[in-house]
Amino acid sequence: MTFEKQIPLLIVQGPTSSGKSDLAVALAEKFDGEIVNADSMQIYRGMDIGTAKPSRDLLQRAPHHLIDIIDPDQPFSAADFRKYAGIAIREIHSRGKRVIVAGGTGLYIKALIKGLIDSPEGNPSIREELNEAARIYGREELHRRLALVDPVTAAKLHPNDQVRLVRALEVFRLTGRPISALRETHGFQNTDFHALKIGITSDRAELYRKIDIRVDWMIQNGLAEEVRMLLAKGFTPDLKPMRSLGYSQICACLSGAYSLEEAILLVKRDTRHYAKRQLTWFKKDSEIKWFEYPLNVDIIFNNVIEFYV
Is the CB of residue 201 less than 8 Å from the CB of residue 14? Predict the structure, then answer.
C-alpha cells in the first residue's frame, strides 16, 4: 500500500502526566511542525489549570490548534473533533508544515484516524428518559437493558459508564440495531492519513509520582479559584466538563462535601484510575509504538526521522 496522497501524521499519545505536551513541542521544533490538540478537556475556554494545558512557554515555542475553542456549556463530540481536526490538519499541511497530533483522548484519535460509525444524532427526550431511569433504578438497570438488546456492547461497558450505556440504548431505540452491529459494518477504515503512533509512558510508580506532583501543582496554582470563577460565570457542576477530573472534586469541596485535603486525595486517586483506563484503551491498538519517556527520547526521534524519509 502506498501513502503518496495521504497526509503524514505524527501522533503522540499516552496516559495523563506522561509528558505528551513537552514531547510534542520538542518534535514540532525539530521537524518544523504544528500541534493539533487531542485532549477532550483542553478545548474548553477558562479551564486551564485543571486540564494541564500547555504552558505559555510551550505555546510560544510551537503553534497549537484546537485549544480554547468553545465554552464549557457547549457540546462537543468525537465527530466534532474529527471535523475540526481535519480542517486544521489540512491547513497545516497545505503550508508545508508537519502535523503532530497530541493528546490522551483515545476516542478522538480513533475517530480521526479510523472514522466514526454512521449513527443517528442524539435524541434529547430519549436521553432524558434513560438518565431518569438511571436515577430511579440505578445504572445497573441500564446495563441490564443493554445486555438484552446488545450483549456484545454490554460486555464491554462497565455498569457505571452511564454516558456510553445511554448512547448505546439510544442508538438501538432510534435504529432498531445494536451499536455493535453498526461498528462491525463500518469496519473503521480511513485512507486520509498515514500515521506514526507514538505512545509514551513510564513505569507505574513513576507515572503515579508524576500524577501526584501535577495535582499538587494544580492546587498550588489556583485550581480552586479557577473552579470558583467558572461557577460564578454560571457553569454549573452538572455540566460534563465540570464533572471531569479535578473539577468535580473541587466543586464538591466548595459545596462542603469534602475538605480540601480530602478533595486532593480524591483527585490523585481518580487520576491514577483514569491513567490506568487510558493505558488499557491504548494497549488495544497494536499500531502504537511504545517508549519510556524521557528515557528513550533519542530513539523516538530516530523513529520519526525514519517515518519522514
Answer: yes
Distance CA 171, CA 179 (A): 6
Q: Which tens digits make up the pLDDT trace of 14-28?
A: 999 999 999 999 999
Q: Which of 48-52, 117-121, 133-137 is least confident?
A: 117-121
CB-CB contact of 235 with 73 (8 Å): yes
Rounded-to-integer distance, Cα 179 and Cα 186, Å: 11
Classify 199 in phi/psi space as left (phi over 0), alpha (psi -120 to 50) or beta. Answer: beta
**Chain centre distance of CA 309:** 30
CB 308 within 8 A of CB 8: yes
Q: pTM of the predicted model, to two decimals?
A: 0.84
Strand positions, DSSP E, the chain? 7-13, 33-37, 64-65, 98-102, 193-201, 288-292
Identify whether 1 is part of a domain.
Answer: no
CB 4 within 8 A of CB 82: no
Q: Which of 186, 203, 222 is the last residue of a domain?
A: 186
Please check whether residues 212 and 73 belong to one and the same domain.
yes
Count of helix runs (H) and strand runs (E) in the chain? 14, 6
Count of alpha carbons within 13 angstroms of residue 64, beta-carbon side: 25
In this structure, the answer to whether residues 134 and 177 fall within a common structural domain is yes
Report the Cα–Cα distance between both ends of the chain, in Å, rounded.
Answer: 16
For residues 61 and 201, state if they share a domain. yes
Q: Which residues pair with 10 in a beta bridge?
A: 100, 196
Domain that holds residue 56: 7-115+188-308
Is 47 in contact with 247 (CB distance < 8 Å)?
yes
